[in-house]
Write a structure and sequence with these properties.
Blueprint lengths: L2 H18 L4 E6 L2 H17 L5 E5 L4 H11 L3 E5 L7 H8 L3 E5 L13 E4 L14 H9 L9 H10 L7 H10 L4 H17 L4 H10 L2 H4 L6 H20 L1 E3 L4 E6 L6 H11 L4 E6 L5 E7 L7 H9 L6 E4 L3 E7 L3 H19 L1
Helix pairs in contact: 2-5, 2-6, 2-9, 5-6, 6-8, 8-11, 13-14
Length: 360
């Protein structure tokens, strides 16, 4: 079967799933701008199709137990995962498949092909030649749902996801067109993406509230919401930690690596590293965040694709118990138990030494 036929078959399966999901649907979305906006687009599609609204819950990639307990509590007939690489946990998929149909829309690398009679599994690499990390779940969701209904008025929601996932360059034309048609400036869309990031970092307990803001309010109304105070709080913290990074980060010039361990008041590493990678796009930046929990969390960035961040972190965490790592080529993240920082760092340095040795 040719590639076009496979694409058509996949899109048809997607349409059948949505048309059949009339009621009792549980939707898990990654708690960031991309996952949030993908979930709102999906919920809007359900409304326009006359389906019962899905119960939408934010989650992190590693919160498998939280997702399974929500599944057991609500006993849905249909489950949707958006911007969550659940294909890396096939046993979880198999558990859910015993009781429900699944739809997975995600843009990370393919870990396992979880397609089955009960699971519709969609990633950009199945439909497009665009690098998956540059094809956010929000845009993929928008494109897929637009094959069923008219979402022109909701296009701005996808734009916030695109900006939040650092893919504006790839979708510049779409952003400009939407800005004109939806009467919202690119600057306003950027501010809304900043709001999502700020709430996630400074007031995570309010993150689920953002879903309702996006669902019911216009961009201009969102920017007047009291939660915007969080943007200022985040910017102040980012300024302080960026200065500390410049002074305190370890730099390994032969490996083009910045390594930084931080103990912030709230989880700021992702927002900080996104700023830093704009300044150092051709360097590997790794930030380890210590929030005095059982696990240390880390993020990695590099924009020139010289070193694959997802593979680097996955290999560095290998053999460390209760660790997890993954993501995209230019951006990845994970966690390790707090007693394994030294081993993790040594692994990173050894892997990078090998990468650069092969280059010579």
């Amino acid at each position: 079967m040719g590639h076009e036929n496979l694409k058509e078959k996949l899109i048809n399966r997607f349409k059948q799933f949505l048309k059949g999901a009339k009621e009792n649907t549980l939707l898990f979305y990654h708690s960031d701008a991309d996952g949030l906006t993908a979930s709102v687009i999906m919920a809007k599609t359900f409304e326009k199709l006359g389906n019962e609204a899905p119960l939408a819950l934010p989650a992190e990639y590693f919160e498998t137990e939280k997702m399974l307990s929500a599944f057991e509590k609500h006993k849905p007939a249909n489950v949707i995962f958006l911007d969550i690489a659940i294909d890396s946990k096939p046993k979880v998929v198999q558990k859910i498949e015993k009781h429900a149909k699944l739809l997975v829309i995600d843009h990370h690398k393919i870990s396992n092909d979880i397609s089955s009679e009960k699971t519709v599994f969609i990633k950009p690499q199945m439909l497009s030649a665009i690098e998956p990390s540059r094809y956010p779940a929000s845009k993929l969701c928008f494109d897929l749902c637009s094959s069923l209904i008219n979402l022109k008025k909701e296009a701005w929601i996808a734009c916030v996801g695109i900006i939040g996932d650092k893919s504006a360059k790839q979708w510049r034309e779409f952003l400009n067109k939407t800005s004109k048609e939806n009467n919202v400036s690119i600057e306003e869309l950027k501010c809304i993406a900043e709001l999502v990031e700020a709430v996630k970092v400074v007031a995570p307990e309010s993150f689920a509230e953002l879903f309702e803001l996006f669902y019911f309010l216009s961009p201009k109304q969102i920017l007047k919401h009291p939660l915007n105070e969080m943007r200022e709080k985040l910017n102040e913290a980012l300024k302080e930690w960026q200065e500390r990074f410049e002074k305190e980060a370890e730099y390994y010039s032969k490996l083009e690596l910045y390594f930084f361990v931080m103990k912030p008041e709230f989880p700021i590493k992702s927002a900080l590293i996104d700023r830093l990678t704009e300044k150092y796009p051709d360097k590997t930046i790794i930030i380890v965040e210590d929030l005095e929990e059982q696990k240390l969390r880390f993020s990695a960035r590099r924009q020139d694709f010289k070193v694959k961040m997802n593979e680097l972190l996955e290999k560095a965490a290998q053999g460390i118990p209760k660790s997890d790592a993954g993501g995209h080529i230019p951006a990845a993240a994970g966690s390790i138990p707090r007693g394994y920082l030294k081993e993790f760092k040594e692994n990173l340095l050894n892997i990078l030494k090998e990468v650069y040795r092969k280059e010579k």
